[in-house]
Every structure is written in C-alpha cells, then in structure tokens.
Design a protein that fits this description.
This protein has 385 residues and is mainly alpha-helical. It has helices at 6-23, 37-67, 74-103, 110-146, 156-173, 177-180, 200-240, 249-288, 290-294, 298-322, 324-339, 345-367, 372-379; strands at 181-186, 189-194. The two termini are 29 Å apart.
C-alpha cells in the first residue's frame, strides 16, 4: 500500500537528502525549512482536536454497537472494524506527528527506541490498509444486498472472517516495515529511517517498486472497484422505481433507507480518497522528484499530512449524520452521563427500533411477493445500521 504516516516519510526524506548530498550523488534544489512557532502551535491544537474527536467518536461507535443488541448487525460490525482501525491510527500516527513538530528527527536510542522505530510505522500502515479493505468489504456487502437480493447475505461468521482477513492481509503486506525500519546515527543524532539494504541507491530503487505496488494494490484497485460497484448500485436503485410506478409508503421508506446507506458509504469512500490523495502525491514526489518536494512550503506539506489523519475524526461524525440509530444511542449516552441518572429514553430507543424492525419485515414480504429468501435480504435494509 502506498499510504504512509507523515513521520515515516519525513524521516526517510531527511535521511536520504542528507546522505545523498554528502555523497554528492544528487543536487538538492531547496532545503526543507523547519516549521515556524505559529505553525507548530496551530497544528498542535488541530492534532489535539483530531485526537480527541477521533478517539472518543470511534470508541463511542464501538460502545454503542456492543451495548444495544439491535445495533449488532453484520454491517455494523464492519463499521466497528473501521472504527478500530481509525483508533489505531489516532494513537500511533498523531502523537508521532506532534512529536515531530518539536523534536524533528530525534529518536530514542537503545532497544526500546529500535522497538518503537519498527512497530509504530508498522501499526500506522496496518491501520490504513485495514480501513481500505474494510471499505471494500462494505461496498461488496451493499452491492450483494441491493443488486443481488436473492443471493445469500453475509452471515455473522462470514463477516467475522472478512474482518479478520482485513487485519491479516494488511499485516502481511506491511510486514516488511518491521524489517526495513532501523535506527541510524547521522551527525551524532539517532534517527529512525527506512532502508532495505546498505547501498542507498539500491534501497531507493526497492522502495520505488514497493511504493508503486502498494499504491496499485491497496489504493487504486480498491477505489476503482468501489467506484464500479457503487455505479451499478446507483443505476439499480434508479431503475427500481419507473416513472409513474405506484409504490406503497412502507416500501418507499425501505427504498429511502437503502439510498441513505449508499449515500453514507459513498461519502465515506470519497472523503477517504480525498484525504489521502495529497499524501500519495507527496510520496511520489519524494520518490521520483525529491527536488520539487523539498521546495514545497513546509506549512503546505505538514497541512496535507494533517488532512490524512483528520479522516479518522471525520468518519464517526459521518456515522452520526447518516445513521439515526447511532444518533439516538449517542444522545442517550451523553444525557445519561451528564445527568448521572438512568434515562428512560433507552426504552424509547429500543421501542422505536423494534417498531422499525416490525415494519421492515412486513414491507419485505410485500416487496418481494412472498419470496422467503428475498424477504430476508430486504429486511436487512431497515434494521439498525
């Protein structure tokens, strides 16, 4: 995968630029300027906000799904997996990003420093890879549920296998990070950098191939796949209601729910692609044209990397915007914590969802004209997401 946390790539850039310039192998057009005090303060405040919102928001999503039985659907388990990967990114990448603003490329020496040098970049990479793969699984699940309603849906067991696979695949793809990240001493300063072999130019060549392969496998292909599937979903939903066709109110509600789910997922995927695209551009500039990269304003580079991690705080906000069940559960928990007493709104929460489930089952039977298998598929859309 091509995405990387800001710290990892900046370590690599600074390491290679100093090494290459000392060897006289390349001509560095500009010198990377340190961040100004105002930029440091501004980014620190922004990162703290992202850390709090990302950690609290995603933890709340996981809590709500585990607390309310009616929220424990297979689709929501995929959302929980997204939230878990976002939390991992929050607790690994953001502290490193803040530390870099003030300590630059300084690193811990000794065994503990070597351990952090290898594990922190690895975990940050894995979190992003897991997010991409989870989005792909969610898209495939919605495609089967909407376009191929007669096929067997993802069972809880298959969902668990899919979730486990996202972490295993990401871990295997990025296992090389545990090998290539090492501690180096440059000008008497310990730093953590990525280096495949002793020869710098050969290491750069391997890194280039790795960058391209990961970009294609875990960014380009998944996004193109999701774009194709969502296009087919939208076309299918558009054709479901021909002009002038009579559709009862219950069926209309189910169709509206389907469109809301698709809108939420398309929004999440789009924002993810937008947030990480600038980082990919930076990565390719580092690899193929470091001279141009080194001349970019420091404020621009650091702001673009901040945008990538802001995605972890945006996702839980999107769940609340598009998902009534999450909003209701969130309001209940906030009120309960602030008031310090039991809130009888939990009964209303459960009752309202039960009514939705009942109405969904009825609508499913009508819309699929008695098809037992199809009714089960239709029922999935109005259950709590």
């Amino acid at each position: 995968m091509s995405v990387a946390v800001k710290i990892s790539f900046l370590f690599v850039c600074l390491f290679f630029s100093e090494w290459n310039s000392s060897a006289g192998s390349v001509s560095i057009g500009c010198v990377i300027q340190p961040a100004t005090l105002s930029l440091k303060i501004g980014l620190t405040v922004a990162y703290v906000i992202i850390f709090v919102v990302g950690l609290f928001g995603n933890a709340m999503v996981i809590f709500l799904v585990n607390k309310y039985p009616e929220l424990k659907t297979t689709f929501n388990m995929l959302i929980v997996n997204m939230a878990a990967s976002d939390i991992l990114d929050v607790i690994t990448a953001i502290p490193l990003s803040i530390a870099y603003l003030y300590e630059s490329v300084k690193w811990f020496s000794g065994g503990f420093g070597a351990f952090l040098c290898k594990t922190l970049p690895f975990l940050a990479f894995v979190s992003i890879g897991t997010s991409v793969l989870t989005l792909t699984v969610m898209t495939f699940d919605r495609y089967r549920a909407i376009v191929h309603t007669m096929r067997r849906p993802l069972t809880p067991r298959l969902t668990a296998v899919a979730i486990g696979s996202t972490w295993v695949i990401s871990g295997l793809v990025f296992a090389s990070e545990l090998y290539k990240y090492k501690l180096f001493s440059v000008a008497g300063q310990v730093m953590c950098a990525s280096r495949w072999v002793e020869d710098v130019q050969e290491s750069n060549k391997i890194t280039t191939y790795e960058l391209i392969i990961r970009f294609v496998l875990l960014y380009l292909i998944p996004l193109l796949t999701m774009a194709v599937l969502y296009t087919r979903i939208v076309l299918h939903l558009w054709k479901r209601k021909a002009p002038g066709e009579h559709i009862d109110k219950t069926h209309q509600r189910i169709e509206k729910q389907k469109r809301k789910v698709v809108t939420m997922l398309v929004t999440i995927v789009t924002i993810f692609a937008i947030c990480w695209l600038p980082a990919h551009v930076n990565h390719f500039l580092v690899t193929f044209n470091f001279k141009v990269y080194s001349c970019l304003p420091t404020s621009l580079v650091l702001s673009l990397y901040f945008l990538t991690h802001a995605n972890t705080a945006i996702n839980p906000c999107l769940y609340l915007v598009f998902n009534e069940s999450f909003r209701e559960g969130f309001r209940h928990q906030i009120y309960h914590r602030l008031s310090g007493r039991l809130f009888n709104g939990s009964d209303r929460f459960s009752t309202s969802r039960a009514e939705a489930l009942s109405a969904s089952a009825t609508a499913s039977h009508i819309s699929l004209v008695g098809s037992k298998q199809g009714s089960k598929r239709e029922d999935r859309f109005d259950t709590p997401l």
